[in-house]
Amino acid sequence: MRKPRIKELNQRITVFSRTVTGRDSEDYPTCVDSDCFTTWAKAETDGVTETETNKAAFDSSAVVFTIRRRSVVIDNTFFIRHYGIEYAIVGIDPCDYDIAYIRIHAKRLVVQ
């Protein structure tokens, strides 16, 4: 892989943490989101897959975000918001071409 050009970092993402605060009347968890930082990223889609169970259909798509390295420690307990869609971080790779960048693998799960 090659180092991304500055003009390729053209997608705005927000990295945030989520805290479960309790349960609602239908026993779904209630959450509070806290934004950690917002940055420019290069987004590459890995593709869309759909899985069906006996109760619901799950549409999951994976995206790899390349961002500049931050002083904030990012792990797989954080989430990413990109164009109003929320992604869970499933992996983080240092870029082998430059230590100034990291690649964040994220997956979206939507219950239909």
Quick summary:
With 112 residues, the chain is mostly beta strands.
Termini separation comes to: 36 Å
Instruction: Report the helical percentage.
Output: under 10%
SS-based structural class? mainly beta
**What is the N-to-C order of secondary-structure elements (H for helix, E for strand)?**
EEEEEE
- Please state the oligomeric state of the protein chains shown: single chain
Determine the mean pLDDT: 82
The amount of beta strand, in percent, is: over 45%
The largest sheet has its strands arranged as: 1-2-3-6-5-4
Given as residue ranges, the uncertain stretches (5+ residues, pLDDT < 50) are: none
Largest sheet: 6 strands, antiparallel, barrel
**General form:** globular
Task: Return Rg in Å.
Answer: 16 Å
Number of E-type strands:
6
Number of helices: 0
Can you walk through the features of this model?
The structure is a single chain. This protein is mostly beta strands and 112 residues long. The chain contains no helices and six strands. It has a six-stranded antiparallel beta barrel with strand order 1-2-3-6-5-4. A hairpin with a 6-residue loop joins strand 5 (85-94) and strand 6.
Secondary structure: elements and pairs:
Layout: E1 11-23, E2 29-52, E3 57-68, E4 78-82, E5 85-94, E6 101-111
Antiparallel strand pairs: 1-2, 1-4, 2-3, 3-6, 4-5, 5-6
